[in-house]
Automatic annotation (TrEMBL):
Protein's name according to its UniProt entry: CLUMA_CG011716, isoform A
Membrane spanning stretches: none
A GO term for molecular function: exopolyphosphatase activity
GO cellular component, one term: cytoplasm
Amino acid sequence: MNSYLKETKKLLSEERKPLMVVIGNESVDLDSAVSSLSLAYHLNKVKCKSKIISNENKLENFFVLPIINAKKVELPIKTEVTHWIIKNNIELSNLICRDEINLDDVDKFILVDHHVSVFRDKCWIIDHLIKIQAWQAIVFLKSKKLDLVHHW
């Protein structure tokens, strides 16, 4: 995980493929942070084997990275998250927080554990409480592929 996270930080400053970020909710609770890290890592590992993530976008065309939905200076007060990160030998300095990236430059978002974003036209959602219409919702299935669940 550390080598992947180091690579993501390096690629932020370089010319790259279109960018997709996986970002959790603003409370940065443990399930949001872990979901962001694990889904982005997984999608980067399987993207060469993936078919289509939606009708118009092939996953292999994107570089996928996790974003912690907090400012870097706020990270130490997210004690549950920082405890888990340290316990799992992940270097805090390798994490990318929302103030370290220009979100306007992101081509696609995967929202995990929330469903509200100003970038609605560029979002896919993984959440158990989807209440907003006109969005795409995707779910991670046992078959290890992403499928469209509902599109209003």
